[in-house]
Amino acid sequence: MNRIDKKFELIKQKNEKAMIPFITAGDPDLETTADLVLAMEQAGADIIELGIPYSDPLADGVIIQQSSIRALKNGAKIAKIMDTVKDIREKSQIPLVYLVYYNSVFKYGMEKFIKECSDVGVDGIIIPDLPIEERKDILDIADKYGIYLIPLVAPTSKERIKKITNNGKGFVYCVSTNGVTGVRQEIGTDIKEYMKIVSQYTDMPKALGFGISNAEMADKYKNYCDAVIVGSAIIKKISEANNKKQTIENTAKFISEIKKVLINN
């Protein structure tokens, strides 16, 4: 059984909601990325998303775009990120998911990329700009190597949700609002109604992301989903830290605050 399925099973038994942090691999450097993964797990993270830096991340707002620029500047290439995951796997079995843009996978070689994901211990991949017509090829390769292709839906997906989630595995990444990632004070979408619609088409766990910026927001929306994804708010903390120690401490404290509200159901 994939680590993602095991984790959601455990979370369900505990009557909790999953905490899924997102960080950009290689921001500020790959050694810190590895240490952050271990610290976030200790602080209560259940699944961790590692963003593969890309020069033109269409789904991302300024905070994540800048983290991609910093990571690329520091030499965070796919092969080096794979090595980092390999190192993490020597110390942790936390489920790891790559968020990667289609062009990066295509240029690297689809089968090569997915095989390496399997070799180093990545559990799933999210490709936010994956064209539906290209999905079958990637799905076939992902199935061959036991890697979950995690579907991503948006409030505007509506009747397309069935098609998008068909053959997806692990969980559904539910984008909370139209637009790009970023720190938000509130979410305009009717989340209750939106999650109801998603549940009509799939029984996979629903993970709500884009704009959840603090424990209060996680607490507000946790009853409508199975997991919350927090990215930009974490990356903001990483970018504001003065040194590695502060980076790890501030991030762990923030994860811990959010996980605390996800335990209290």
How would you concisely characterize the structure shown here?
51% of the residues lie in helices and 13% in strands. The protein is built from twelve helices and nine strands. The chain has one domain: Alpha-Beta Barrel (TIM Barrel).
Average per-residue pLDDT, rounded, comes to: 91
* CATH hierarchy class name: Alpha Beta
Total separate domains: 1
Fourth-level CATH superfamily: Aldolase class I
Alpha-carbon distance between the two ends:
27 Å
Radius of gyration: 17 Å
Proportion of residues in extended strands: 5-15%
Please list the strands of the largest sheet in the order they lie side by side: 5-4-3-2-1-9-8-7-6
Low-pLDDT segments = 179-185
What class, by secondary structure content?
alpha/beta
Question: Could you estimate the helical fraction of the residues in percent?
Answer: 40-55%
For the record, the CATH architecture stands as: Alpha-Beta Barrel
Mind describing the biggest β-sheet?
9 strands, parallel
> With helices defined by DSSP (H or I, 4 residues minimum), what is the helix count?
12
